[in-house]
Design brief:
The chain is α/β, with parallel strands linked by helices and 464 residues long. It contains 17 helices and 20 strands. The strands form four sheets. Strands 3-4-5-2-1-8-9-13-14 form a nine-stranded mixed sheet. Strands 17-16-15-18-19-20 form a six-stranded parallel sheet, with helices on both faces. The structure holds adenosine-5'-diphosphate (ADP).
Length: 464
């Protein structure tokens, strides 16, 4: 099958979040399954400065490309006015004012490019609002060109909270008929909503976990788009993201004190000791060590965690927290560390090597997210035999259960505390705990599995 993947960020070229990981890993896994894939993203300044012109080939004045995997061409849509600047979407004053111009240009130019390189895809797989005009343009501006006939589109939503909303006055910039500024199109409470139009125009909708695909059809999680999604519910699917096991593997991880597998669990405890030493916590293997690696945000459960933290610190446990985010949570946590210096170790920064040490050295990984489209932390911790404790939502509900972790079902401080008590009690039974670790470490969330599911969805779209 011929596939175009269109996303506004792709590892290893440009990244601000998980979207880039998916857009970088999925094409490689699809190629392994024998598919013909190309990728298109904006040619940001950061790509030229970080990757250098030498690794990029010039195709046209405004198009360069690079190759990933065996033979996947990644095309960069260049435009000095729109993309030759420091950020991807924002500067320190907030969103760029011309984001609608920038990403509508990217979408249109990507479609033109297909014809210029004579690559007619069976499937165009677009991601998030920045690429959502592609399905719209295919059925409007490009609908009368035979080259573009029968191309099927899939739109993946990575977080429904980001929709690309602009004022009504900007609509003419899209070069579309005002008819489309309607309830079945772009109109959203009097504004232009790009993701909404994408959801209306694409052939299939997909999110990054099965549970999240259901949740976003409800008022609680849909951020106003639940109606659109509900209307198209027979077209809405959920496929879990995979995890890159070449990076996240305790058998080969060079950041941790000692590599290990479930056959050499004693070595995991050496990592625990190393982490306790690094964090200046009492060296004691009998106390359960809880780890957190996260953005400090309400989405990640820091509202109930801050309410519960005093009670948690009174339990017989240790807690290492690595993260940055809302200043509010920085302050709350700094205050609590002063009160319980032998219980909590706090690291308010982004630190990849330390994240690896926490995944390897902790006994339990705390991830009480209020909502979680997919989540990587829990998948990483499972691989490291660090038992996840999660709220039952989104991708957390699809990857963690009573067999491999701890799950609480009511989003409240009390239920979080109860679940932590349950985990500390379970930790006391060493044989059972080690069996739990083994079950966790055997879980497999590889990209190969996810790519096979995507391929099934592509087949469905192609034949419908
Ligand atoms: P998000 O919603 O932030 O994308 P995920 O769980 O999907 O949440 O992915 C977060 C990723 O970022 C994980 O790989 C996690 O280990 C990493 N991460 C988050 N905060 C930090 C930090 N402060 N230092 C290092 N890594 C971090």
């Amino acid at each position: 099958m011929k596939i175009l993947l269109a996303a506004s960020e792709v590892v290893p070229f440009a990244k601000t979040g998980g979207l880039a990981d998916v857009a970088g890993a999925l094409p490689l896994a699809l190629e392994e399954l024998g598919q013909e894939v190309i990728v298109a993203l904006p040619g940001y300044k950061v790509i030229q400065s970080r990757h250098g012109r030498d690794k990029m080939q010039k195709l046209k004045d405004d198009i360069s490309y690079s190759t990933i995997g065996k033979n996947i061409k990644v095309y960069f849509i260049e435009n000095d006015k729109y993309f030759n600047r420091d950020g991807l979407y924002t500067d320190k004053t907030g969103d760029y004012k011309d984001n609608l111009d920038r990403f509508s240009y990217y979408c249109k130019r990507t479609l033109e490019l297909l014809k210029e390189i004579n690559f007619k895809p069976d499937i165009v797989h677009v991601h998030d609002w920045q690429a959502s005009l592609i399905p719209v343009y295919l059925k409007t501006l490009f609908v009368n060109e035979s080259f573009y006939k029968n191309i099927k589109t899939i739109l993946t939503v990575h977080n429904i909270g980001y929709q690309g909303i602009f004022s009504r006055e900007e609509f003419p910039k899209l070069s579309l008929d005002w008819m489309l500024f309607s309830i079945e199109g772009f109109e959203f409470y009097g504004k232009v909503n790009i993701l909404k139009a994408g959801l209306e125009f694409c052939d299939y909708i997909n999110t990054v976990s099965p549970t999240y695909s259901q949740e976003i059809q409800t008022k609680e999680f849909g951020f106003g788009l639940e109606g659109v999604l509900n209307k198209r519910r027979d077209r809405v699917f959920g496929i879990l993201n995979g995890l890159d096991y070449s990076i996240w593997n305790p058998k080969t991880d060079r950041f941790i004190a000692q590599e290990y597998s479930f056959k050499t669990l004693q070595d995991k405890y050496n990592n625990k000791q190393d982490l306790q030493k690094f964090c200046k916590l009492p060296l004691n293997l009998d106390v359960p060590l809880f780890g957190i690696v996260s953005r400090l945000a309400e989405q990640k459960g820091f509202d109930i965690l801050s309410e519960a933290i005093d009670s948690i610190c009174k339990m017989n446990l240790q807690l290492v927290i690595l993260g940055t985010g809302d200043i509010k949570y920085h302050l709350i946590l700094e205050r609590i560390v002063k009160k319980y210096p032998k219980v909590i170790s706090l690291h308010l920064k982004f630190d990849d090597p330390l994240a690896h040490k926490i995944y390897a050295g902790s006994d339990v990984f705390l991830m009480p997210s209020r909502y979680e489209p997919c989540g990587l932390g829990q998948m990483i911790s499972l691989k490291y035999g660090t038992i996840p404790l999660v709220f039952k939502t989104g991708g957390l509900a699809d990857t963690v259960n009573e067999e491999n972790g701890f799950v609480f079902e009511r989003y409240s401080k009390d239920d979080l505390i109860k679940s932590i008590k349950k985990a500390t009690a379970a930790f006391q039974n060493k044989n059972k705990w080690n069996a739990l670790i083994e079950t966790a470490m055997k879980c497999n969330f590889s990209w190969e599995e996810s790519a096979k599911e995507y391929l099934q969805l592509y087949e469905k779209a192609k034949t419908k």
